[in-house]
Design goal:
Strand content: under 5%
Structural class: mainly alpha
Number of domains: 1
Radius of gyration: 22 Å
Distance between the termini: 60 Å
Length: about 450
Amino acid sequence: MRAKSKLSDTLTFISRKINKGQERSVKAKKNILAAFLIKGGSIIVSLFLVPLTIHYVSSDQYGIWITLSSIIGWFGFFDIGFGNGLRNKFAESIAHGDNEKARIYVSTTYAVLTIIVTIILTIFLFINPFLNWSKILNAPSNMAGELSTLALIVFVFFCLQFVLQLITTVLTADQQPAKASLFNFYGSLFSILVIYILTRTTSGNLIYLGAALGFIPVAVLIVSSIWFYSRKYKKFAPSLKYVRFSYARDLMTLGVKFFLLQIAGIVLYQTSNIIIAQLFGAAEVTPYSIAYKYFSIIPMIMGIIMSPFWSAYTEAWVKKDIDWIKKSLKNLKLIWVLLSIVSLIMLVFSNFVYRIWVGKEIIVPFSLSFFLAIYVIMLCWTNIYSLFLNGTGKIKIQLYISFLTMLFNIPMAIFLGKKIGIAGIVLSTIILCSISIIIEPIQANKLIHNKARGIWNE
């Protein structure tokens, strides 16, 4: 009885803490708590998925798969920033109580992205037979036919996911990121089930792997879209009746800036796999991917915590609630300190964790783990401020910084990679990210204290 009473008291205390404060803060806390449970489950499942996938295909094939997936993922920037534009415009419309305008933005975004995807897919279907994927991925030449088929399968499912994932943008813009994170959890859960079935019924096959991991998230998004748009979000459901291409200009005005940021981000953060594959071979992508997944737990946790804040910042900025913004930034910085300590602890035990997780066959250099630990600490700090700037739409300086770093990233990564190995590629990103660490907090503080002028206010 005493234990039951203590549990009840603890739950009551937690409930009071969560429901205490401003409505926006209460909503954020509820979503953070729910997201921790959901995304925590996703992280655990995805960690189990890595060794299972490596044991289904070989280490070399896994490296090829990761590299190909990264390349296909680059095409995500072809939304021209419409997704992030929708996120801000939807949040602004809701803040003003204009549900019809929000639905117009949703319907128009679906229509525009469907047109874009149709064009992109048509072009890819035409050029894919002429692409030498074995050379692009630095894979054995006898895999050319298999890789071409795999690329086609992955790209088709990617295009479908490209449009369908807008439901996650709508939920996140409505400050419901926990619900949006359910999709990744279900996708990871079904993926591990399907890969397990494949290990029992087939021998390692990249085509089966690509088809399975491509189909599952698409199926989850289709079911989720039908569920939400036929119930609570019915008033925002996309409809041809509400498509207004004239509204695309509003989405693009802000969206193009996000689009350019996405391109720069891809070059800065998503080219490592292909550079490693070209410099050291596809097999070397595997240890990098293992270490990256391990340390990416930190930005994942930070992302869970920050996920409600983008749209919350938009609402707070529209309503001039500066005090709430200041308090939120202060709390996020305290959380960053704690996660930085956790990152260093993870570094100390990294080799031990790798051996338990994926076995002794895959060796991850400690220098790689060290630089990745530093990288995630820097990334989390930068994201605190970039999230606020994204929410307010003041991203011009981010844009300039991103393009500056984009120009230097690949040549610097190749140079440092040749000098000190895979760790040099991460070091390149660290050096370039240091610019954002200095500039973005300065801009955020200028905006908060109403001292931003010129480019600082754009």
